[in-house]
Amino acid sequence: MPIKNSLYRLLGARMIYKNLPFLYFLCGLGVIYIGNVHFAERNVRKVQTLQHELREQRWRYMTVKSDLMYQSTPTMIERSVAEQDLHFLTSNPVVIR
Amino acid sequence: MKEVKRELLIRVYIVALAMVGIACLLFYKAAKISIVEGEHWRSMGDSLYLKYMPVIADRGDILAADGSLMTTSLPFFDLHVDFRAEGLREDIFKANVDSLAYYLSRYVNTSVSKTQMRDWLIQKRRNGDRYALLTKGVSIRDLERIKTFPIFRLGKNKGGLIIDRQHVRVKPYKLLASRTLGLDRENAQQIGLERTFDSYLKGEEGQRLMQRVTGGAWIPVSNLADLEGRRGADVVTTIDPEIQDIAEYALLDGLVASNGTKGTAIVMDVETGAIVAMANLGATGSGYDEDYNYAVGFSSEPGSTFKLASVMALLEDEGADLTTPVDMGGGTGKFFDRTMKDSKMHGIHMSTLQEAFELSSNVGIARLVQDYYGRDGRAGQFIKRIHEMHLHEPTGIELDGEGAAMIKDPAKKEDKWSGTTLPWMSTGYECRMTPLQILRLYNAVANDGKMMKPYIVSQITREGRTIKRFRPEVVDSRIASSATIKKAQQLLQGVVETGTAEEYKPDYYMFSGKTGTARTDYYDPNSPRKQYMASFAGYFPSDNPKYSCIVMVYDPTKNGFYGATSALPVFRKIADRCMGINRDLLAQTELPDTIAYREGMRLVGWSQKEELNEIMDVIDMDANVEGQGDWARLAGGKEMEMEVKDVLEKNMIPELYGMGIRDAIYLLENRGIRVSFHGIGRVKGQSVQSGQPIIKGSSIHLTLG
Predict the structure, then answer these.
(1) Contact B75, B166 (CB under 8 A)
(2) What stretches of B428-576 adopt beta strand conformation (E)?
(3) The whole model's pTM is what?
(4) Beta bridge pairs of residue B518
(5) CA B126 to CA B115: how far, in whole Å?
(6) Separation of alpha carbons B571 and B602, rounded Å
(7) Is the peptide bond before B541 cis (omega within 30 degrees of 0)?
(8) B380-394 pLDDT, tens digit each
């Protein structure tokens, strides 16, 4: 019977009771761990979405910019103002002073 | 009681046994899965939740000298429609098909009518097509608009719009230097800079281990940077977009005017050999396009532009001088059994080397060369001089496919040197070179004899930092003695002052150069018509050259076939505009006395005193002020007089002569007079004379000029 008793004592309520704070701590760690994983994954997703958005914005910028670059070449400008009879200067500028 | 207890115990044991049995079974199964079949299941799990994903590196950009983008990668989208998309219910489709057809026919496929589009949509819907091609190559801006169309605006799964992205190399400047920049395409060879610098541009494709997490996202398992792809480096060229624009469109206009089949124009920085513009145009079905890099790849007989080399050889060997007399034979001359002709029968006989060069006389130059080098086996000396000018070598520009130069050598049997080779070669036949190779010689003359290697890429950068720099390279610090170079410069200037290019002599700066007209099919007696190649090579401004330039127009058929009529106008236009954007190259023209100081001359009409004072301040002019009021005008005498008064003080129509239209309208309409005018400039005439009383509501017409 002594063996049985000591076994009871080992696995007994007192032991569990004594280590309960530690078990709580472990559970807490577990919860934090799971939460952290979700949090990290959400961040990764957010980063990916933002990266995608950033890329799209860059494409949009580049598309608009390349249009603008083309429109602002001297020849294109001359063509677009030809109606107003504006042309490139073909004579030497005169310095007044 | 005991019976009951026993029975209960037995039942409990049975249940416990069953539990233990199940537990064992579970344990066995678990062990089997994880140990015995472990390998299989683990790899299967990996393939579902873990995979290596290629990280495709973005290709680098090609930049102009000023950093603006000449080639970049942009996404374009191919659009398909899933007509059996989940959310695309019959009622939604029916309600919106009309308006969708309207938008599609208006913005996406403008070649079909709204009804045709509607029929197409209904047809596809009936067939239940899940991947019907709508359009290809839509830009991101258009895509955004398309996404707002009816049905499509329902979203990805409901609207059925399927978007496939692909990256396309885009040249924002479109035509400009497009062949030089090159192409990067699938299933075909790359060309141009895309090809030469592919190893830098392409970057490194990487592989990354990704893990699938809830929500369908893939996240990198580890941050092993060495597995990540690297964006390609950027290639910075020496091309100046503004000058490229000038050259490209000047060439285009020139080709249209002369109806040439192809043409090229190159502008090079004299001091460094940097190519600032390289335009290549060839006739396509409907106009001209950059279809081949003629400047680098197309070698042909240069014609008269080669005479510069011939004359320089003569000068260097002191075989002739600028004043050496020569018989131009009136325009024809016989060399052995062949007759050489000048481009025009000019009828001039006795002349000098200088005049023969300026008039581009084939006979004159060939005669001089033949007289000196044609005897005693001295032809080899001529070739030696040509070699000293590096005309037999490729330029080594960083573009693949450079055309080979061909200069015959009397010492080589396979070159088939004959008696007529020397005279014909001296006028630019029986030899071949590319436009760039010719330009290199003219550039060296402009650069006082220092020959630079033409180059088009100045550096390679990654994220803005230079990883490789290309510096100007000297091919030969002196291709001829400085006396020869001086004389060559003098000759080239003479061509423009009094020679074949005189008609296009500019009036406020000078360029130097040489016209060239070469028959390209003289060897073909069956040619239906004579074909020519017109060229002009030179540099500007003459006194302190900044740019050298060559223009070639192949097979011009309209408005003359001469270098002076087809290529020179293009050169002149390029030179004019380049000088226009480099005003510091121009000698400043200062009027000795500005109009304001001319005695007895009234400078301008009445203008607002404050504005006039401001102008006077800026140009630092003083004047004696007389009178009082808000309006003023200047009069020039020994000293400037400024007359000031209130022009409307007596309620009379003022003198409007010389007044700006803005002031005139302000003045008159404030007093209720309606003003009409025609012309541009300042007021020249007024329909109601000054001194007439102002009548409210009356009208006046002004003539400007």
Answers:
(1) yes
(2) 431-432, 451-452, 457-462, 465-469, 474-476, 512-519, 532-540, 547-554
(3) 0.76
(4) B533
(5) 16
(6) 42
(7) yes
(8) 999 999 999 999 999
> Which ipTM was obtained for this model?
0.72
Tokens linked to B122: 């209904």
Q: B448-479: string of b/e by CB count within 10 Å (b at 16+)?
A: ebbbbbbbbbbbbbbeeeeeeebeeeebeeeb
Q: Which of the residues A37, A43, A51, A66 would you substitute to probe the B interface, choosing the one with the greatest number of B C-beta atoms within 10 Å? A: A66
B368 touches chain A (CB under 8 A): no
For residue B447, with 0-12 CB atoms within 10 Å meaning exposed, 13-18 middle and 19 or more buried, which class applies?
Answer: buried
Name chain B contacts of A74, Cβ cutoff 8 Å: 242, 245-246, 577
Q: What are phi and psi of B509, to 5 degrees?
A: -155, 175
- Measured in residues, chain B has a length of 705
Q: Are B554 and B257 in contact (CB under 8 A)?
A: no
HSE, CB side, 13 Å, CA atoms: give it for residue B363: 24
What is the Cα B322 distance to its own chain's centre?
40
> pLDDT digits over B159-178, tens only?
888 888 888 898 999 899 99
Write the CB contacts of B422 (distance below 8 Å, at least 6 apart in sequence). Answer: B369, B370, B373, B374, B379, B382
Neighbours of B676 (CB within 10 A): 10
Q: Quick one: tokens of B589?
A: 């023209």
Place of tokens 């258009």: B142
CA A28 to chain centre: 29
Alpha carbons B331 and B74: distance in angstroms, whole number: 58
Cβ separation B72–A62 shorter than 8 A: yes
- Tell me the CA distances in angstroms from B135 to B88, B107, B139, B171, B463, one per residue in order: 20, 11, 11, 22, 35
Closest by CA position to B511, among listed B603, B579, B566: B579
How many Å separate Cα B588 from the centre of its chain?
29
Tell me the C-alpha distance between B596 and B640, whole Å. Answer: 8
Residue where the block lists tokens 């008793």: A5
The partner residue sitting opposite B173, judged by closest CB among A64, A73, A97, is: A73
B226 residue type, one letter: D
